[in-house]
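Hey, I'm writing a tutorial for new members on how sequence and structure tokens pair up, and I'd like a real worked example in the thread rather than a made-up one. If someone can provide the structure for the chain below, I'll link this post from the tutorial.
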Amino acid sequence: MASLLDMRRRIKSVKNTQQITKAMKMVAAAKLKRAQDRVTAARPFAKKMSAVLGGLSSKVTDEFSHPLLTERGDEKYLVVLVTADKGLAGAFNANVIKATQAFLKENPDKTIELMAVGRKGRDFFKRRELSIPSEHIGLTGAGQVKYTDAVDIAQEVIKTFTEDESLDKVFLVFTEFKTVLSQKPVVEQLLPIPKISTAAEGEAEQDAEYIYEQPAAEIFGKLLPKQVETQVYRAMLESVASEQGSRMTAMDSASKNAGELIDSLTLNMNRIRQAAITKEIIEVVSGAAAQ
């Protein structure tokens, strides 16, 4: 049986851990509010841009061709995986990694390479037999996403897709933020840009008529790269908000579990102390009776 001193040390250790988890919960809650506001503001623009470009591209494909719209084969994929740089976020990293593994299993005959955005995804697949030609680490550690970082990633993806003719498709895997308690891993095709928008208003945009003041090639030459940048930026914002929501929930659960453990250890400590006091009383009484 553990001694009274051992129990006190364990209780103190658990209390220190509980203070850390409570502090992490508060920090995650503060970061979540900012991240949620940013992703809420970015969603309408990203969806509307996808819808407009979906309608435009379906009407002008016969007039010109663009590398980011041209359909290729179906043999080689590039997967852009967005995960966190840190752990202690519940099942956040595990869920998006499982979604990536499921995608790999669904395409066993494809040649797949990985672009890792986030340390956790990079570390996981680095131990597997999967090619990781590019990685971007340390972009979301502070709980914020810079648009310039998303632009750099998008430009690298575009450059890889246009220069590597053997690359057929690029997919974006990230976690979509629903609520604090709900986050959903999502797999979206990034390149070639889908001609038919998957946005709710996509059908309406396809039926719309547009008048071009500049040549279509000039318009799409500027809008299509911007579309890729916007989608990468939105995915990173969604991922950060999901990470902070999952971390806040995990730290809240850990704090409650620590409280329950402290109560249990305190009860055991009191029992040990009571047993020691009872033993001392018995020894005193036995000694007095012997005399």
